[in-house]
Design brief:
Blueprint: H1 9-36, E1 54-56, E2 58-65, E3 71-76, E4 79-80, H2 81-84, E5 90-98, E6 109-113, E7 116-117, E8 119-124, E9 127-132, E10 147-151, E11 162-170, E12 177-178, E13 181-185, H3 186-225, H4 228-248, H5 258-282, H6 287-310, H7 313-341, H8 344-368, H9 380-466, H10 473-493, H11 501-518, E14 522-527, H12 538-559, E15 563-571, E16 577-584, H13 602-612, E17 616-621, E18 627-633
Parallel strand pairs: 14-15
Antiparallel strand pairs: 1-13, 2-3, 2-5, 4-12, 5-11, 6-10, 6-13, 7-12, 8-9, 8-11, 15-16, 16-18, 17-18
Length: 645
């Protein structure tokens, strides 16, 4: 302890009041931990009877720090080596006296020590009953777990107290020493021993596994989403695993004090990153506070490394104070979000943050500095684990909101899709109606054009001939027949042909057969069955009929033929096309030269109609006399047909 000069009463009262408030806060924190089940065995416990558990509060000790003369002292337990000899290693011998047994008491006895270390041997009545590592072997640390030491019945005395000697070796900055020693029936101490191991060692393992799992989950979420919140918590979780493993890992393969520096650096990063995580959860990132957290993270790591490297515990203590102040600086923002914005997550963080700050104050003041009665029970790991639960809640909440958002989006898209589908259906119906109207209009125009060009022109010619005084009845009859043929072809073109060229040609034969028979002409019909042709529409059918009608009419009027041969077939190579050949045995053309200007319009009209449907028409002398008309129509080209000529 340090001594101070007398102060005015008011200042002493203020200091005393401050200390009393701190002590009250730590007492409340301790009570909360007890309610949560974080058991701490403390205080004298001595009762009458053979089942009583005796707590030993004093010990005679010989303390021998390295490089100094050993000294014998009377100690009040618990005793922390680092509080008396900061930054120094050494060895110590503690001697305690166990109460004498009563007559007839054969109950198995044991010692329960919550912290002892770092390596130790325990002797009862001069007989070694336990070895906790090898003295001086820094790879073993017995102080990380409670020790239940069973005492053989023959070693305990009934006529006088029994001497217990505990020899320990302690490494610098490792928290060695001797806690309260509990002595009593083995069965009574086993329950307390199990409770201590559960909340110190098992909890540390559970926390480590939880941090690994949540850190891995957060890392996976960060990898998929690149969300800084998940990345920050992943780093915080992985850095916290080292500290929690150290609380349960007795035999560490890493030499001391290098392992101590690693644990301290991981702890500094763990605390700083948790503070940064809190700001990210609230989406409040004041630049000055973010920089402060980064500085505290870096300085804390450097102070931790320097502390263990140069054996200066005050440096790591300074780093812990810096981390505690940084965590306190985050509390006003959390409180502002809770009271100002009334966010539910902010209220959760208020509770977790205050618990973490109070736990950090307990570990700094009581565990590390030994103030307010001292303690070896660290509370920060339990407080930090709350943030693991918070992250799990955040992941579940974000996932739930994401599912809800996707459902709402799907519903919105479905509604919009239904609207668009309705609009498209309406537009399609309107388009189909217009197409039908357009088709009807085009069909009307085609019929009007056909009547005008076919029947109309024939009737006009007939009218002109009727007006002539010397008109011959045979000529008039011929014109009337041509007008009837034109009308019949126009009517036939109104019938759907479904691409059936064979039927269209057969219909033409049916129309012309009476005239051919009346003229005494034999018709040889050689039309093969042809498959339906998709591009064979009414316009193409009408043009083919007119070309063939013109050819038949020329034969009837000018050739003087007695026989006509009609052949039609589909040819697939070199390209799909229809070939129609019409030959007669009449007088023929007399010449293969092209017609001269001033000749009749019949052939010119036939070629113009063939060109209109993309066909090739040739008129030449037949192989045995007469005339040969050949028409080749490439149906696979889907040639658009302009207006009839």
């Amino acid at each position: 302890m340090c001594t101070t000069s007398p102060k005015p009463f008011s200042k002493r009262a203020t200091l005393a009041g401050f200390r009393s408030r701190i002590a009250a806060l730590l007492t409340l924190l301790r009570l909360a931990c007890l309610l949560l089940g974080i058991g701490v065995i403390s205080g004298p416990s001595q009762a009458a009877g053979s089942d009583a558990v005796v707590t030993l509060h004093t010990a005679q000790a010989t303390l021998a720090p390295d490089g100094a003369t050993p000294q014998a002292v009377d100690l009040q337990l618990p005793f922390r080596w680092d509080h008396r000899y900061p930054g120094r290693a050494g060895h110590a011998r503690y001697q305690l006296l166990l109460p004498a047994l009563t007559k007839g008491d054969d109950t198995p006895r044991a010692l329960l020590i919550s912290s002892l270390g770092n390596q130790a041997t325990v002797s009862v009545g001069g007989t070694t009953v336990a070895r906790l590592g090898n003295l001086g072997d820094a790879n073993h640390d017995a102080s990380k777990t409670a020790q239940l030491i069973r005492i053989p019945a023959g070693l305990l005395r009934r006529d006088a107290p029994t001497s217990v000697v505990i020899d320990t070796t302690t490494q610098r900055q490792r928290g060695g020493g001797l806690d309260l020693v509990h002595y009593g029936p083995e069965t009574a101490l086993e329950a307390r021993y199990d409770s201590l191991r559960r909340w110190r060692n098992t909890a540390a393992v559970v926390y480590s596994v939880s941090l690994l799992l949540m850190g891995g989950l957060a890392a996976g979420l960060w990898w998929r989403q690149r969300d800084v919140l998940y990345g920050c918590f992943s780093l915080a979780a992985f850095s916290g695993v080292v500290r929690n493993l150290d609380r349960a890992w007795v035999d560490v393969p890493v030499p001391w004090p290098a392992w101590g520096a690693i644990v301290a650096i991981g702890y500094a990063w763990h605390i700083a990153l948790i503070a940064r995580f809190v700001l990210l959860v609230l989406d409040r990132n004041p630049p000055w506070l973010v920089r402060t957290i980064h500085v505290a993270m870096g300085l804390g790591a450097m102070l931790a490394a320097a502390s263990f490297m140069f054996a200066q515990p005050v440096l790591w203590t300074t780093g812990l104070v810096l981390l505690e102040v940084t965590a306190l600086a985050c509390l006003p923002i959390v409180l502002q979000e809770a009271f100002g914005q009334r966010r539910r997550i902010a209220w959760v963080l208020v509770g977790a943050g205050m618990f973490a700050v109070a736990a950090g104050a307990n570990d700094l003041l009581r565990v590390r500095l030994g103030l307010f009665g001292g303690s070896d029970q660290t509370l920060t790991p339990h407080a930090i684990f709350v943030f693991v639960v918070i992250l799990a809640g955040l992941v579940v909440d974000r996932y739930s909101r994401s599912v809800a958002d996707h459902r709402a989006l799907n519903a919105s898209l479905r509604h919009r899709l239904d609207e668009q589908e309705g609009q498209l259906r309406t537009a399609f119906d309107e388009l189909r109606r217009r197409e039908q109207e357009q088709a009807v209009l085009l069909e009307r125009q085609r019929i009007m054009r056909e009547i005008h060009d076919g029947v109309g022109s024939q009737l006009v010619g007939l009218l002109n001939m009727v007006g002539q005084p010397d008109a011959k009845a045979s000529v008039l009859e011929e014109h009337v027949k041509l007008a009837l043929d034109e009308m019949r072809m126009a009517v036939d073109s109104l019938q759907p042909n479904h691409g059936d060229l064979t039927t269209v040609l057969a219909t033409l034969r049916y129309r012309l057969q009476p005239r051919l028979e009346a003229a005494g002409i034999t018709l040889a019909w050689e039309v093969a069955a042809m498959p339906p042709i998709a591009s064979f529409n009414a316009q193409v059918a009408l043009q083919l009929q007119r070309i063939l009608l013109e050819a038949f009419t020329n034969i009837l009027k000018h050739a003087g033929a007695t026989r006509i041969a009609m052949a039609a077939l589909c040819i697939e190579a070199p390209e799909p096309h229809v070939r129609i050949v019409l030959t007669d045995d009449g007088r023929g053309l007399g010449s293969l030269q092209p017609p001269r200007p001033g000749e009749g319009r019949g052939m010119a009209n036939m070629k113009a109609r063939a060109h209109a449907i993309g066909a090739m028409l040739s008129i030449a002398a037949g192989p045995e006399g007469g005339t040969c008309v050949t028409l080749e129509w490439p149906y696979a080209q889907g040639t658009a047909t302009p207006a009839a000529q």
